[in-house]
Each structure stands twice: as C-alpha cells, then as structure tokens.
Automatic annotation (TrEMBL):
CDD domains: YhaM_OBF_like. It is an enzyme of class 3 (hydrolase). It holds the Pfam family HD. Keywords: Hydrolase. Residues 164-287 form the HD domain. GO terms for molecular function: hydrolase activity; nucleic acid binding. It comes from Posidoniimonas polymericola. Gene3D superfamilies: Hypothetical protein af1432, Nucleic acid-binding proteins. This is 3'-5' exoribonuclease YhaM.
Length: 324
C-alpha cells in the first residue's frame, strides 16, 4: 500500500519529496530575465502547477513530458490555487514508481466497465445498428485503445479509461431517458453515445501524459470519426450481406458531428434530430457533473464550505457543511 501524499491531499506549506508524472514543461524568463521551470505534476488524484526558480537548460532537459520524476519542494497557496515550489527535480528510477498511484481506474474497473458496455450495446435491436456496434466491439485493436483512452485533455474524464467511463455513463443515461420519450429512438441514441467520441482513440496520445496527436490537432475527433464509421459500415455490410440504409448512416454521422451542440463549441452542425438533441444534452450533463465534482474534490480551500471563485464559471461551488 502506497504511503504517498496524493495531489488532492496536499495542504498549504507542506514539504514534499516524492514521485509525480511530469507534463507541460516550459523554461521561461521571469520579469528580471532569470529562467524558471514551469510544469504540471500529477498523480491519479489530480495535478498541481509547479515552479522551479533559477532553473537552467540542463534542468529542462533532465526529463521529458510523460516521465516520472522525483520532486522535492514545498506547497503554497497562490491566488486561491495550490502550487508546488520545487527545489529539486530528477527522473525517477523504475523501482521508485508505483504505477497504481497514477491510474485513476484500476484494470479490474476497466474490465468491468468494458463488459457492461458490450452488454448494453448488444441489447440494440435494430439489425443494422447491432451489426455496426458488433464490428467495433470485436475489433481488438480499437477496443484496446477505447478502454485506455481519456475523454479529454483537462476538462472532464482526463485520465486513462476516461473515454470508456464517460461513454458507459452516457449509454446508461440513454437507457434511462429514451423510454420517457416515445418519439426518441433508443438504438440510435445508444450508437450515438458509443461513437460520438470514438475517434478520440486516435485524436489523443495517452501512453503517459495526455496530448494531441498530429492528426488530432489537424482534424479533430469529429472529422476523424467519419472515416472510422464508413469503414465499419462496409465491414458490417460484408459480414451480414445486407446493405445499411444510407439515411441511417447519415443520421449516425450527424449524431457525431453535432454532439457539441453549438458552433461556438466546435460542432460542425447544430443537432437536427431528436436523438442528436438528447445526445448533446446528456453529453453535456455527464461532462459537467464530472468536471464540477473534480473541482469540488480538488479545491484546496479545506477550511471553507465553499470552493474558490472560478472566473470561467462565474461562481463558487458549495461543498457542503464541513465536519469539524
């Protein structure tokens, strides 16, 4: 059992000497022109902004983004956020790293969720959509990536297995919501929930730290998903010997390219079907619940019933009455 202090447990003015995962490193000048190292350090509980003053090029080159590093320093509250001021950083030896400290979801959690997702998708009754879902489910390379990928860079489900976590949550929501609206097609909503972020398996790189691939940066997951869907439609048609209706394929693609809901949020189209409207709202609900919960859990304001003020949300969040 690890005795580390997780990022979410760190308090003000606490001495730290332990292993973290490094990302987003930059060597920057301060106002006086002296260089300092800026980076993010993380473990499975979250991340903490880190500075190392009076750094130099060799400090910067001593490790890469995605490396495990041993960091010595002290925490401090700065403008409502916890940060770490490091006085030493070096690459960690393999024997110093406990991988479990950096996995939000353990292997057994992921296996259980993957089994449940397959169970839900194999409940689809539309033969064409069932065949399409099956072609994805039996693709071991795709599902291997799908169960490891995060759902985002930072905002929600930003951890290995986060995509599976998010998609399963959406599918469970679809099973709850669809029966309430007689004109809503549950099978279409389920396939949309499954595939809406499917191309994130190739949009993002996630072996250690999370970043965009070149294709992800250039094209984005919604565009990338179009070819992925076309390929699997052809595969399903070959396996079943039956063509899939072109209008149905169009609706599936529309679910993917409209799921962000607004042009300002990157949607290529606004939702134009009942299933697309439902998918956008459920996707937003699940993402918001995950990100707001994370903000509440990660808030360094341990002495208050409230979080700090978040300018991007234009509010504080209520954490509940603290137990004395």
């Amino acid at each position: 059992m690890s005795n580390r202090r997780y990022v979410s447990q760190l308090g003000h003015n606490e001495q730290v000497q332990q292993v973290f995962l490094a990302s987003d490193k930059q060597l920057r000048p301060n106002r006086s022109g002296n260089l300092y190292l800026q980076l993010e350090l993380s473990d499975r509980s979250g991340s903490i902004a880190t500075r190392m003053w009076n750094a130099n090029e060799s400090d910067y080159k001593a490790f890469e983004n995605g490396d495990y590093v041993v960091v010595g320093g002290a925490t401090q509250l700065f403008q409502g956020n916890m940060q770490l001021i490091a006085n030493s950083i070096r690459k960690a030896r393999p024997d110093e790293v406990d991988e479990a400290d950096f996995l939000t979801l353990q292997t057994e959690d992921i296996d259980k969720m993957a089994r449940r997702l397959a169970e839900v998708l194999r409940g689809i009754t539309n033969p064409a959509l069932s065949a399409l879902a099956e072609c994805f489910l039996v693709d071991e390379e795709f599902m291997g990536k799908f169960t490891r990928a995060p759902a985002g860079m930072k905002n929600h489900h930003a951890y290995q297995g986060g995509l599976l976590d998010h998609v399963l949550s959406l599918c469970e929501l679809a099973l709850l919501v669809a029966p309430r609206y007689k004109d809503l097609d549950q099978d279409k909503l389920l396939i949309g929930a499954f595939l809406h972020d499917s191309a994130k398996v190739d949009e993002l790189a996630y072996e250690r730290d999370i970043s965009y691939t070149d294709e992800g940066q250039m094209l984005g997951h919604m565009v990338m998903a179009m070819k992925m869907i076309d390929d699997k439609v052809k595969e399903a048609e070959r396996l079943t010997g039956d063509p899939i209706d072109a209008a149905l394929v169009m609706e599936i693609k529309h679910l993917v390219i409209s799921h962000h809901g607004e042009y300002a949020y990157g949607s290529a189209k606004l939702p134009m079907t009942l299933e697309a409207v439902a998918l956008n709202l459920l996707d937003n609900l699940d993402a918001k619940m995950a990100s707001f919960s994370q903000l509440i859990n990660d808030c360094p304001n341990s002495e208050s019933n409230w979080t700090q003020y978040y300018p991007n949300l234009d509010r504080k969040l209520w954490k509940g009455v603290r137990e004395e």
